[in-house]
Amino acid sequence: MLYAIISEDVDNSLERRLAARPDHLARLEALRDEGRLVLAGPHPAVDSDNPGDAGFSGSLVLAEFADLATAQAWADADPYVIAGVYANVSVKPFKKVLP
Fold first, then answer.
1. How do 86-94 and 56-64 pair as beta strands?
2. pLDDT, tens digit, for every residue of 34-70?
3. Rounded Cα distance, 68 and 80, in Å
4. CA dihedral 78, 81, 83, 87 (to 10 degrees)
């Protein structure tokens, strides 16, 4: 089943994000290589593809996991969680309707 992992950053998270980004991306690339990643990306803190020093306000990952507990465990082990980038992470089942 698909799960949406919706994360909200702490204030002024950019420096922590940049430090943990290689490990964070490696986990996402592993999901992609397994054919389980639908999409992933950050929410810019301002209305721009390149927010610069404004940084990001959170992230969204949409991926396939065996069950909610497995998705939650994966989210809990994210390098951004460990580095203190995220203030809040929510994991919810997701039903794709379109496209």
1. unpaired
2. 999 999 999 999 999 999 999 999 999 999 999 999 9
3. 20
4. 160
